[in-house]
Each structure stands twice: as C-alpha cells, then as structure tokens.
Amino acid sequence: MNLEKLLQRIQILETIGTLALSEVEVSELVFDSRKVVENSLYVALKGTVSDGHSYIKQSIEKGAKVIVCEELPSEINDEVTYLKVEDSSKTLGHLASNFYGNPSQKLNLIGVTGTNGKTTVTTLLFDIFKTLGYQSALISTVEYRIGDEIIPSTHTTPDVIRLNQMLAKAVEIGCEYAFMEVSSHGISQDRIEGLHFKIAGFTNITHDHLDYHKTFQNYIYAKKRFFDELEDSAIAITNADDKNGSVMLQNTKAKKKTFALKTMADFHGKVLEVDFNGMLLNFNNKEFWTTLTGKFNAYNLLLAYGIALELGMREDEVLQAISILHRVNGRFETIKSDSGIFFVVDYSHTPDALENVLDSINEIRTKNERLICVFGCGGDRDKTKRPEMGDIATKKSTLAIITSDNPRTEEPTQIIKEIEAGVQPQNFSKYTSIPDRREAIKMAIKFAEPKDIVLVAGKGHETYQEINGVKHHFDDKETIRELLQLMGK
User: 9 labelled as ligand-binding?
Assistant: First the structure.
C-alpha cells in the first residue's frame, strides 16, 4: 500500500526520509521485529516486557523501509523513512484500519465487555444472526469464526492487526455483522484502537485480572474507557443491576440503553421457571423457553436480545431464534451418567462466576441431592481471588474438591494452600485437596450417588492443562466420560 494513503487521518509529529511519502510502498504492517519482511512498516511499541525501539536497527536489517516510533533513533539510515508519533500503540490501530481498508466501518461491529458472560453473549449473537440468515463473524475466547470458517482462538481480544485482517476477510465474504469480546487487556493495550463500534455491551464487573491492573479501580477504568471512546453514532447497553453499569455510561457520547432483571430498564427480564433442562423467561412481557439455564444466563440472553433489537431485528424472530439455541461450549454444559449423576462443566474461574453457577445449581436442586464442586485457580494470575473462591466453594457446596487448574509456572500445592486460606472454620470438614485434576474428578465420581450434582469448574471449553509452560491435553468433559465408563457409573 502507498504510504501517503496509509497515513490518512494519522497525525505525524516529524518525518525523516529522502523519498516523498507518495513514492514509498508498504508490503506489510508489523510490530514484532521477528515478522519483518522486505518493505515492511515496523511500529516500535513500548511494551510491558520490552521496548520495540530497541529492535529498530534489527528491523531495518531485515528489510523494513518505514519506521513508526515515539523516539527517533540516534542512527538514521538514508534508505528508510522515519515517522515520529506521540503514541505508537494508538497509531498502530489507525494504521491497521487503513491498511485493511477500514473494515469495521463496513460492518455492524458489536463489542461486549465485562468480567463474566462475554463469550456467551457474543456466541449467542453469532448463533442468533446465523439462525436469522445473516453471515457474521465471531471473535471470542473459544474460537474465531468468519462465516462458516472456524479459526482457533489465541487471545480473547487479538492484536489490532489480526483483528483488522479478520474483519477485512469478513467484509470480503459478505458478512454484515461482527460480534467480538472486548477484554480489559485489549482495551488497555489499544488493541481496539481505530475500530468503529456500532454497539457496545456491558455484562458485569467483579474482581479479576488484578495481577495486571493492580487495583479494582484501574480494572473498572479499563472497561469504562471502551464506552468513553465510543462515537455519538454508537449505542451503549449496560447492566442496570450491576452497580458499575451506570459508571460505564457516565462520559459516553453514545446513545444509552439498559437491561436488567431486578430494576426498571429498556430491556427487562424475569425468570419464571428454571431446571437443568432450561428456563421459562419473560423479556419485555413476552414469554419463551430456552435450553440455557441459570440466572446468569438470563442476563446473557437479555443483553443478546437487546443488542439484536437495537440492530433492527424483529422481536418475535429473535425470541424464536433464542428458543432453539444450544448451550455455549464449556458454559453450564451438562452430562448425565447412566447411574443418574448430573455433571455441570463450566468455565467459571472468578469468584463471581463460581458463585453464580453454584447459586444457579442450588436454586434448581431440591436439597436432597448433594452438590460436589471440583475447582482450582490458575497460576501466574490474580492471587487475590484464590481465598475468596475457597470460601465460596466450601460455603455453597456439600463437598468441595480443590485441585489444579492451569498452574502454569507455579507449584500447584502452593496455589491450593492459598485457596484453602479462605475456607471458614465451620467449613473445614466440607473440603479436600487433590492436586491431580483427573484424580480429583475421579474422587468426585466415586463419592457421588444417583441424583447428586458434580460441578467441574474453571476450564470449560479448554482442552489442555498448562504446567511449567507446557500445554498437556486435558478435557474436563472427556475425562468425566472416560472415568464414568471405567468406574461403571
């Protein structure tokens, strides 16, 4: 692409180069010096681990012809064009949009943020619009989808170059809509810079990612920034039952909408009946049945419903589509053994998510059945939630089995000790610890009797366990089925 065209609407503080911008052609846009090819434009980013400015010389040696940086290097190459900008990270977002033809302006791009529910809401929207006959794209924690093509997911919110690549491909095949999760990391690291969102949705916010954001206020601000930067043509839909829902709307220029189960809102819902097979719901005075279950899923469905209506879909068609949806992979998925034991596999890996799932199960069960909870906490992540999850699991279960999640580089037994620290004295007899996740699930099956409920929480859709930097195959659902067969239950 011609450099002059690539720089449209981008503010450059200083330019150094012998060629006119209109004479420079850019083959690739990169921010990783290892990916530089001949005639690349390399953007030097100041990261948390390393500074891309240190790799400018290496990038030029590999063929970069344009360098975008915040600080010009002391050594200037006459055959290279240098562009000094105020913020390389933000500039990259606008460069990526221009390079790929500003695809987010050619789509109805919907972003969903919040601690819990992002994957479910975006996946529900993708499935709703597919049912209604529309080609769409999905960018989620579980997978990326462009029409019928499925691409393995690497990040909840990919880097801004990859994002624009996928959105451009979506435009190319005729997609009208794109639904994406917007993580707090993605917002903080400018991975959505330069994108044009039609609708932004907020699910909820609870303690998470404090290893990265350091304080809860920083975490809230990261989410809020998404709404602060929306254009006045956009629509912001937030959860009125969450105390931070109104915070998200404080400074936004977007049109404001709300959804809620407990308070008055533009999109109001009620849970009329609930069991393991699904729920009878009422949205804006219309009753319907869904195979999804649990109050937290009522919120997820309500946000998806509100977004679909704001996009101009007919209410009766949306509710009909919702009523035939399947559960999202790894989100309150149920397995029933031949002996009548109910298993729930769920991705819940935050205190709030674990509490929501346990509360939902406790609302459904008659209390004659026991509730066994198998869970752990990920290593190298927010440690503050570990004791809180230990308290919640032992308080709301008949038996909690504390085990490994993805220990990563941490010692599993140390993670378990930090979880155990939150268990209240009156609940000491209600838990045990088994570091090996397969053995923990095996113990739950051995202990369970017909009609008992076993929640296996924390990994959901994941098919691996990361131990000391190595990913080993491990699938909770697969393990449950295998052990049930081996144990004859």
Answer: no
